[in-house]
């Protein structure tokens, strides 16, 4: 199992035989006829080469050069193999559950995700192209295969906000601080950034202090009772301090 890889075998065996004496690059030419003769003669050349080595007693032997044969490399490969097996046993990707889910994040796909039917979607697109001019045909987004990443967004105030489920899960579990608080924390909508503070470009929204001041004046009248409980004071040099006592 620790032998040479396929590409290394091709480089050391096949390419070497092509570039040494008697190979294709040594005056034989690279036309189709020369290549066919060279390929068909390889089994006979291998038998002749083996017979000459046995007759002269000269054999081509190599030492332990492959790093994959060392004990440290084998132990590391076995450790990685056990890690992959344990992950597959925990996630159970080969179960009878027909739903699609990510093997890394374990996020389940919605019913709109059809990436597993990509061949059918592609065939339908090619069928629609029949009889039409290629330059005039327009690929529509609704005809494309829908992946799990394309559906990781939510609509907030009519705006599409991308969601990273794994990052949000980590943040929410940290914010919960205790197992008892998980249920209350996960009641909130999953969003990668608070849309009330940031735009979709992750820049702070422009503040509308006069709107906030007008809302406070509307709610708080002169005869309103005093604020009870825990009070938070917000100090601002703008209209809030100037117009609201």
Q: State the major sheet.
A: 2 strands, antiparallel
Tally the beta strands.
2
Structural class: mainly alpha
Shape: elongated
Number of DSSP helical runs? 9
Strand order of the largest sheet: 1-2
Q: Approximately what portion of the residues adopt beta-strand conformation?
A: under 5%
The mean pLDDT is: 76
Low-confidence stretches: none
Helix/strand order: HHHHHEEHHHH
Spatial separation of the terminal alpha carbons: 80 Å
The Rg value, from CA coordinates, equals 35 Å
The helical percent reads 40-55%
Describe what you observe in this structure:
By secondary structure, this protein is mainly α. Among the domains are: 51 residues, no CATH class; 35 residues, no CATH class. It is 44% helix and 3% strand. Strands 1-2 form a two-stranded antiparallel sheet. A hairpin with a 2-residue loop joins strand 1 and strand 2. It is elongated.
């Amino acid at each position: 199992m620790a032998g040479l890889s396929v590409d290394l075998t091709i480089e050391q065996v096949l390419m070497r035989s092509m570039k040494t004496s008697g190979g294709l690059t040594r005056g034989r030419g690279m036309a189709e006829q020369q290549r066919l003769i060279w390929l068909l003669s390889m089994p006979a050349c291998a038998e002749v080469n083996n017979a000459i080595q046995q007759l002269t007693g000269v054999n081509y032997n190599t030492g332990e050069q492959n790093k994959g044969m060392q004990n440290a490399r084998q132990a590391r490969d076995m450790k990685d193999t056990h890690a992959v097996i344990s992950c597959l046993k925990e996630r159970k990707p080969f179960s009878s559950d027909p739903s699609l889910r990510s093997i890394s994040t374990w996020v389940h796909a919605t019913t709109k995700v059809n990436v597993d039917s990509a061949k059918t979607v592609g065939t339908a697109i090619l069928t629609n192209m029949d009889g039409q001019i290629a330059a005039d045909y327009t690929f529509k987004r609704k005809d494309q295969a829908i992946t799990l990443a394309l559906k990781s967004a939510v609509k907030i105030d009519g705006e599409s906000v991308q969601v990273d489920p794994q990052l949000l899960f980590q943040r929410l579990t940290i914010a919960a601080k205790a197992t008892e608080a998980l249920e209350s924390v996960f009641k909130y909508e999953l969003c990668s950034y608070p849309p009330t503070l940031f735009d979709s470009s992750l820049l702070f929204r422009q503040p509308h202090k006069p709107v906030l001041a007008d809302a406070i004046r509307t709610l708080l009248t002169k005869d309103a009772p005093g604020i009870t409980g825990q009070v938070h004071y917000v100090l601002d040099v703008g209209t809030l301090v100037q117009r609201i006592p």
